[in-house]
Amino acid sequence: MTRRTAIGSLATIGGAIAISPTLLSGMVSEDKKLGVALVGLGNYATLQLGPALRQTKVCELRGIVTGTPEKAVNWQKEYGISPEHTYDYETFDRLKDDPAIDIVYIVLPNFMHAEYTIRALQAGKHVICEKPMGMDAAECETMIAAAKKAGRKLQVGYRLFYEPHHLQMMKWAQEPFEGRIRLMETSLGFDMARPGLWRIDPKMGGGGALMDLGPYVIQAARRAAGQMPVSVMAQGYIDDPGLYKGIYGTYAWQLRFADHTVCNSTVSFSAYVDRYYVAKGNQFLELKPAFAANSKLTLQDRENATTLPSAEFQQATQMDAFARNILDDTPVVASGEEARTDMRIIDAIKESLKSGKEVDIPR
Ligand code: NAD
Questions:
Q1: CATH top-level class for 18-159?
Q2: How far, in Å, is the centroid of ligand 1 from the Cα of 106?
Q3: Is position 276 annotated as part of the catalytic site?
Q4: Cβ contacts of residue 138 below 8 Å, gap of 6+?
């Protein structure tokens, strides 16, 4: 076989990856659109999810839950939400009597995810919960069990599970051409730690950059490898002891897989990095930037660099896919089980940080 570049091999194996034929098959009539209520109107809801819900075809924004009356008024005006679909944290459980709301999207700080997900499921709603889905794998388990008990669907807000360039990375990694994948590097970091930020409070965030950014780089590694890592060895660094209390500013670890593939990862709240690199022999494929929402992603191999048009609002695809899963009663791709898998790895990283030893990852 002649030598081909990684991007060239993608072209011959089918290049563009179908996300879901039903999802792309067109608009759903107005009355079939599912109603979404956003819970927690902070940065992510305001800058990403609200605008993305203007682009969704299978669901639409119909309700909000907020503890701040001024935000309620602003969102009502901006998105035409009626006061009868506006809730606060006291009236949250009344969602069960609101037939206009099918999907409740939890966009709260991490420590509140499990409680509000379970309450929304008990109110009979389908739920999307932001990442990290729970504070640990055991909490994710409780959330999955609550969805099963309620007979409702649960999605974790993993927008990159629906992002075509990430799907291309996975497809190339698992192509037998050029041999098997040997080495990966997946990293994400920003200079973002500030006093008072809930993300750096161990009780609210659960572990700084590890909890906030870890799910992206861990899911990229295990999905490219197409298997679970068997063990992890982790280290933590603090560059500002006045800021980081009970957490590290930067976390680095090495995941090992049964076939001797390794993945080196760094996540940081102190410095910028955003990279997804997969190598097989002398071939590599790299996305840079890779994980931040709505960046233009550049896919590069040894000979070509292709800046692919960034999908505007990956979250629209993610939310429409979930609405489709509900309407068609099909399995959720970014499922609660996927989130639990990543949390098992994060739990093992925390254990390695404590013990200073390599830790086995449960399957
Ligand atoms: P944020 O701090 O901007 O917003 C959090 C919201 O929760 C605020 O509106 C705040 O008022 C509200 N809140 C309610 N009760 C609170 C309490 N007791 N303490 C603190 N805040 C309370 O945070 P964000 O950046 O919007 O993140 C929210 C969630 O979304 C997090 O879990 C985060 O990991 C996730 N997120 C995901 C992505 C992604 O790309 N998937 C991107 C950003 C954030």
A1: alpha beta
A2: 9
A3: no
A4: none
The CA-atom distances, in angstroms, between 234 and each of 185, 280, 311, 363 are: 14, 24, 33, 19
d(CA 143, CA 145): 5
* Residue 215, amino acid: P
Q: Which CATH class is domain 3-9+161-312+333-360?
A: alpha beta
Enumerate the β-bridge partners of residue 127.
Answer: 104, 154
For residue 15, the model assigns a pLDDT of 42
Q: CB atoms < 10 A from the CB of 22, how many? A: 14
Q: Crossing angle for the helix pair 137-150 and 113-122, nearest 10 degrees?
A: 10
Fold equal for 3-9+161-312+333-360 and 18-159: no
pTM of the model: 0.94
Nearest CA to ligand 1 atom 2: 42
Instruction: Report CA(360)–ligand 1 centroid distance (Å).
Output: 32
Mean pLDDT for each consecutive 10-residue tract of the chain (363 residues)?
Answer: 58 42 46 93 97 97 98 98 98 98 98 98 98 98 98 98 90 86 97 96 98 98 97 97 97 97 98 95 90 77 74 88 98 98 98 98 90
Enumerate residues 6+ apart whose C-beta is below 8 A from 31.
Answer: none
Spell out the domain ranges in the chain: 3-9+161-312+333-360, 18-159
Is the N-terminal amide bond of 69 cis, ω within 30° of 0? Answer: no
| Residue-wise burial string across 230-247, b where 16 or more C-beta atoms lie within 10 A, e elsewhere | ebbbbebeeeeeebbeeb
| Gap between the Cα atoms of 103 and 228, Å rounded | 30
- Rounded distance between C-alpha atoms, residue 316 and residue 49, angstroms: 8
Active-site annotation holder among 33, 57, 131, 350: 131
C-beta atoms surrounding 324 within 10 Å: 20
Atom of ligand 1 nearest to the CA of 44: 26
Compute the distance from residue 42 Cα to the ligand 1 centre, in Å.
5
131 is annotated as an active-site residue = yes
Residue 113 alpha carbon, nearest atom of ligand 1: 32
